Please model this.
Amino acid sequence: MSNLWVIAKREFAHYFVSILAYAAAFMIFLIVGILFFINNWGAAQQGSPPDTRSMFGPLAFLMLFAIPALTMRLLSEEQKTGTLELMLTAPLRDWELVAGKWLGAYAFMLVVLIVSLGFPLTLHMLTQPAGIEQGPLWASYLGLALMVGAMLAVGLMASAVTENQVVALLISFAVLIAFWLIGSPSSLLGGWMGNTLDYLDISNHFYNNFYRGVINTVDIVYYVSLMIVPLYIATQFVSSRRWR
Model:
């Protein structure tokens, strides 16, 4: 287990010396900040109550682009440089390597989400004594944290498939887009097939419940499952390299 934490800390620290990580975080804050300001400025002019949901929609959508870029190197780089084979000769279990990589990336993205709290908290202070609704705010952050964890697992899985970082990025993006859009035809299909596609849609679980302030066990189970399955697949890819 100590190996897992060593790898996680190394990956977490790497993001803070990565230009790509800083660029991704900056673009997220810039776009979300501008949209958040415009929406709430317009609401204030019309006498409408402040709404933090104007931030979470764009923030969730931007993760589709940021996470493939931030995960493409996790295992691809290790494969290309040959350090993966070296690591596999050490007393290190495959799942520890995969889980450590994922945990380090997850910790960095949680920092990004924590920093983004500055937007709603500033709005809360500026709109006293009424402030903002607490329920939807924290439910949305919980949903985002779960969604990000699942997306990172998909990105890590893509990185385990190939040593080419660009290919890993494209695979990750394609899979995430598929999960994002898979529920679109559900209303046309109806029945069990429509319900299945609706359930598989990664965005539905966020926008239909967490985004509205509703915390549902079904949604939590979905996101946790979408973390476990890709991480398991990534571990199998790593294990296959051990025996080559």
